[in-house]
Amino acid sequence: MEDTKEAKPGLTDQIKQYIETRIKLARYQAIEKGTSFFANLITEVFVLICIAFTLFFATITLGLLLGSLLGSYWEGFGCVTLLYLLMAVIVSKTKRKYIEPRIVNFLVKKLLKPRPAPDNEPAN
């Protein structure tokens, strides 16, 4: 009878230690996922900014090119404006059916993708 009384505090301590370890593990996993997400977000934003600058300067170049071909810069930039207006109408008409589901699926896959193990961990 005394053996079971002595075993209970040891088992209780082990359960407490196990719970504390699981909480620490969950906390570390959340920190790792959060930092990974924000690092990925920063790089994606940088790439988007570079793409935006490229598109901006390509638009100016196209406007100047069309302006020189048409003989009037306002006509060249007007054609570029109509091109962007046409793209905006197409995107607004198709966003619910084609664009939004693909973006949602991409983001869900990105957030739920398991992280590969770092290369600098020692092998067991």
Description:
The protein has helices at 2-70, 73-112. The two termini are 43 Å apart. The protein has one domain (10-111). The protein is mainly α and 124 residues long. Helix content is 88%, strand content 0%. It is elongated.
Could you tell me the radius of gyration in angstroms?
A: 29 Å
Q: How big a fraction of the residues is strand?
A: under 5%
The description of the largest β-sheet is: none
Number of helices: 2
Briefly note the structural class of the backbone. mainly alpha
- Assembly type of the chains comes to single chain
Shape: elongated
Q: Tell me the domain tally.
A: 1
Number of strands: 0
What is the H/E string? HH
Stretches where pLDDT falls below 50 for ≥5 residues?
Answer: none
Give the rounded overall mean pLDDT. 87
Indicate the percent of residues in helices: over 70%
The N- and C-terminal alpha carbons lie at a distance of: 43 Å
Secondary structure blueprint with pairings:
Layout: H1 2-70, H2 73-112
Helix pairs in contact: 1-2
Give a quick rundown of the structure.
The protein is built from two helices and no strands.
Which features would summarize this protein structure in a list?
single chain; 124 residues; mainly alpha
